[in-house]
Design a protein that fits this description.
The structure is a single chain. The chain is α/β, with parallel strands linked by helices and 239 residues long. The chain has two domains: 123 residues, Rossmann fold, CATH 3.40.50; 104 residues, Winged helix-like DNA-binding domain superfamily/Winged helix DNA-binding domain (Arc Repressor Mutant, subunit A). The protein has eight helices and twelve strands. The protein has a five-stranded parallel beta sheet, with helices on both faces. Strands 9-8-7-6-12 form a five-stranded antiparallel beta sheet, covered by helices on one side. A hairpin with a 4-residue loop joins strand 7 and strand 8. Helix 2 packs parallel to helix 3 and helix 6 crosses helix 8. It is elongated and about 55 Å long.
Length: 239
């Protein structure tokens, strides 16, 4: 299967090297050498993967990631970074990167990471339970699965693609408790040991958007010592 990959990397030698080896995986590769051009390409084209350098002219990789993750269309991101501190890795993952690779990296590791992301995305396509209806309602919450829209008391709520996937997954499984690791596997499609706090960050942001009082959540609730669940006591309906 041919995949389309966007490589945003200002070092042209590295970009060309990545392109050559991705083409050996039968990928169609497009190159961009700064953050502004790369972001425009990412927003205008349909890609199966974006490989993104952290340090870019124009707009850095974290800002590119932030803007892309604010969109509803979800594309996997593999972040390249010359920095090796845990803080940089955590920042990239918290902003929405699916994986990271620290420079200098081996070509074998790069291709292995790329193939792993493709496998995870293929698995994820069948991982989420099928929607039993186009509209899901619970209390003041309304989810339109087909349009990927969320409303609270009739007012539209802007969610990122991953926030929507997380909320829909919870809403389709009311009352069932999920650990952070389980949510990584089911919603993100991968298990990144040591980074389960990524789930916490997404849930905190989701609560800030949908809960009347995020400190006393009515929709996505914490089960202390175990994980999270969607409140099964809410009146729910599907159409």
């Amino acid at each position: 299967m041919s995949r389309s990959v966007l490589v945003i990397e200002d070092d042209r030698d590295i970009a060309q090297l990545v392109k050559i080896h991705l083409e050996e995986l039968h990928c169609r590769v497009k190159l961009a050498h700064d953050g502004i051009v790369g972001l425009a390409e990412a927003e205008s084209g349909a890609f199966n993967l974006i490989i993104l350098d952290l340090m870019l002219p124009g707009i850095d990789g974290l800002e590119v990631t932030r803007r892309l993750r604010a969109k509803t269309n979800y594309t996997p991101l593999l972040m390249l970074t010359a920095k090796s501190t845990e803080l940089d890795r955590v920042l990239g993952l918290e902003m929405g990167a699916d994986d990271y690779l620290t420079k200098p990296f081996s070509v074998l590791e790069l291709t292995a990471r790329v193939k792993a992301i493709f496998r995870r995305m293929d698995k994820l396509a069948g991982a989420l339970p099928p929607a039993t209806g186009k509209i899901f309602e619970a209390g003041l919450l309304r989810i339109d699965n087909e349009c990927r829209s969320v409303f609270i008391e009739g007012k539209a709520v802007e969610l990122t693609a991953k926030e929507f996937d997380l909320l829909l997954f919870f809403a389709q499984n009311p009352g069932r408790v999920y650990s952070r690791e389980h949510l990584l596997n089911r919603v993100w499609g991968y298990s990144h040991s040591g980074y389960e706090h990524t789930v916490n960050s997404h849930i905190n942001r989701l609560r800030a958007k949908i809960e009347r009082d995020p400190s006393d959540p009515q929709f996505v609730q914490t089960v202390w010592g175990v994980g999270y669940k969607f409140n099964e006591q809410l009146k729910k309906g599907q159409a």
